[in-house]
Amino acid sequence: WRLGFIIMASHFHVDTSTLIKSGSEPVCVLDSTNTLLESVLVLLKHNYRSAPVRDTTTNQYLGLFDFIDLLSFLAQFLSKHKTEKEILANQDSFFNATIKELTNISGRNPLTPIKPTSTIIETIENLALGVKRIVVQQEGKISAIVSQASLIQLLSKHADEFPFLSETVKDRNLGLKSIEKCSVNLPALEVFRKMNAFGLSSLPLVDDDSTIVTILSSRDLKLLFEEQSLKSLFIPAEDYVARVRCANPTIVRT
């Protein structure tokens, strides 16, 4: 996708308003004093993957919080509390952690601001460096968030303008690196540990024949907050995914 962004950049000289839907809902902002539980429930309520965090004292934005940060914090928590008994006994400290301390704890979600008049080229260049989302900031307030997904949608709408899109994945040497994977029988918490260690946001789950059965993603951590318990971390990863998928599917805003 980064290669696509870079090639695409030379074709777009308009401002970022192209990427922002008219009449869209205001950006969801988290207060720095919110607990982790409160913050994740807000994200789930609005079907967002991330949100900016604002310091309630200084009224300044501290950064972005998303499910990758949640994954990193879970990995830290699990490194301190080893056994199931110890983890469950300390789960209140997990859910009640202050979101201020967890903002961009992963180091993979920096707050990258642009102006509404910034060109799409500038936006693409930032995203091509690995930034997942860029905030549109005006007069000290964040008015919108531009994500990789919104740019991919723009690319799709203008697909006929990019001849390279007819080339194969192999031609562009995309997606050819080895795939990390985990057994469906591995406890969910072990898969999340590996996911964080590999610096990934999801991992495929395979059966005894190494056939991919399903995928566990960082956003599936939402189950813990819907249940307000860490107990599901100890069930097999395949069963964990099944519990998540039992809920009605929702449209996720990036």
Order of strands in the sheet with most strands: 1-2-3
What integer is the average pLDDT?
85
Question: Element order, helices and strands?
Answer: HEHEEHHHEHEEHEHEEHH
Oligomeric composition of the shown chains? single chain
How many helix segments? 10
| Computed structural class | alpha/beta
Q: List the uncertain runs.
A: 20-25, 248-254
State the total count of DSSP E strands: 9
Beta-strand proportion: 15-25%
Give the N-terminus to C-terminus distance in angstroms.
Answer: 16 Å
What characterizes the major β-sheet?
Answer: 3 strands, mixed
Describe what you observe in this structure.
A three-stranded mixed β-sheet has the order 1-2-3. It has a three-stranded mixed β-sheet with strand order 4-5-6. Helix 1 runs antiparallel to helix 6 and helix 3 packs across helix 8. The chain has 254 residues and is an alpha/beta fold. The model is unreliable at 20-25 and 248-254 (pLDDT under 50). The protein contains ten helices and nine strands. The longest helix has 14 residues, at 67-80.
